[in-house]
Amino acid sequence: MILQCPKCKSIHIKSKNYARKVGGTIGAIAGTIGGLSAITYGARTGASTGLIFGPFGATVGGISGAILAGLAGGAAGSSAGLSLGELVDSKILNNLKCTSCHHSFSVDDHGIPQNYHDYSDMDEYDDEHLIEQVS
Ligand SMILES: [Zn+2]
To answer: Pick the residue with more confidence: 123 or 31?
Structure first.
């Protein structure tokens, strides 16, 4: 499928992926914050597991447990944010931009260009979408 600008018919189109980028960042932050509570748990679990190997084992176990929990939280949040951002980009925002005339637009599931004016039209779009499904 070749994407074409609905305004000037140019085929020089690029995707902006704003929400994807923002979603990934917010997801990583949220995941890390979520990971912080997991860090306490990870440290405690690591420490009690490490106790088998004495006090030094408890310290090493606690630190590695905390690091693992933090990393897992950040990574999970980041990928969740990326997926959500992709959905927002493809369904709601004018994700595509014509590099010839700088017109922003979206395409529907069939690749047909849609003309949403700006981000404040999001509620209006949802209403239209619901009506379409009913009729
Ligand atoms: Zn154009």
So the answer is: 31
